[in-house]
Write a structure and sequence with these properties.
The chain has about 325 residues and is an all-beta fold. It contains no helices and 25 strands. The radius of gyration is 18 Å and the shape is globular.
Length: about 325
């Protein structure tokens, strides 16, 4: 919660190197799920509790430059933010009506869209898009805990879909779509900790949970873009589970030989599943892993920690993207 409030790293051949801080910093501490990045790494949003509530940046080279504030800011502190993969849409959730605000991003200008006709019934704690920006899930505390929306037409109107027949068993801690929106995973502290869906048209039907579940309530869940892998963070050792999907069945992979030093507060899985970054409370406050070379054989895929953590306390959020290979 101390300035500069955000630290940005660049992954070069498996080594995370801290970039220079933006010249214009966020006005306050980022919310736990308030940091998000577009799929191409060009746009970055930091949600805070300070008036204005969102600070948007555009990357030029390795420099992140603050953009003008949206003409219509959120009405309350940002709880979470999320981008569509192409950066064309950015959503913010907060604790005051209408609980969610969606922006259309055109060349760094964020314009608020019309509020959905049916809004969430209470303070929203999370939001996520599928890779195409067609489907959006908003998470909140009161039942039914999740609202699903579909973008229709070219004007960016998001229309609420019918509620899934099976809803999560409690307020969600996270959610993640596959790129095509075919699969949706929702994590929640209440047993059985995960609720998984497969989309048929615009209907989301529950599918079976993995046979091996987390041993405690998860703090978050993430799917790779192709839906082949899912990762879940939670409070029990080894703090993170990885699953591989075969058909509609998710099977747990072996545990990391070098797990994080403690329970992760938040994490991000790259869309291609090659890297995962975690923020946690015990020093060194973060860990990063790679599933592809280069990796550190001694620590079983654990990448070297960044050369400068620029932090003396646990980070409040983490986001990542993977640049497409030429």
């Amino acid at each position: 919660g101390a300035p500069p409030y955000i630290t940005i790293y660049k992954n070069t051949d498996g080594v995370y190197v801290k970039l220079s801080n933006p010249a214009a910093l966020p006005p306050g501490a980022a919310s736990t799920k308030g940091t998000s990045m577009s799929g191409d790494g060009v746009y970055l949003t930091v949600g805070t509790g300070a008036p204005g509530y969102v600070t948007n940046y555009q990357r030029t080279g390795d420099e992140f430059v603050k953009l003008p504030a949206p003409a219509t800011p959120p009405p309350a502190a940002a709880a979470a933010t999320a981008y569509s993969a192409d950066g064309a849409y950015m959503a913010v959730t907060f604790g005051a009506p209408p609980y969610v605000r969606i922006y259309n991003n055109v060349a760094g200008t964020f314009t608020a869209l019309d509020t959905p006709a049916i809004t969430p019934p209470g303070a929203s704690s999370g939001v996520t898009f599928d890779g195409t920006g067609t489907y959006m899930a908003v998470l909140y505390g009161p039942p039914p805990y999740i609202s699903l929306y579909k973008r229709t037409g070219t004007d960016g109107t998001f229309v609420k879909l019918a509620q899934p027949s099976a809803i999560p068993t409690g307020a969600p801690s996270g959610a993640s779509f596959t790129n095509d929106g075919e699969y949706l995973a929702v994590s929640h502290p209440a047993f059985p900790y995960l609720t998984l869906y497969k989309r048929d048209g615009d209907t989301f039907n529950q599918i079976h949970n993995p046979a091996e579940m987390p041993t405690a309530g998860p703090a978050g869940v993430s799917l790779t873009a192709d839906g082949k892998f899912m990762s879940v963070i939670y409070g029990g050792v080894p703090f993170i589970n990885f699953y591989r999907r075969t058909g509609d069945t998710f099977v747990k992979e072996q545990n990391l030989l070098s797990p994080p030093s403690g329970a992760a507060t938040t994490f991000a899985l790259s869309r291609d599943g090659s890297h995962v970054g975690l923020a946690n409370a015990p020093p060194p406050y973060m860990a990063s892993y790679s599933a592809v070379p280069p990796f550190d054989i001694e620590t079983h895929f654990m990448l070297p920690r960044p050369t400068s953590l620029n932090s003396s306390a646990s980070p409040l959020g983490v986001t990542t993207y993977i640049k497409a290979k030429p």
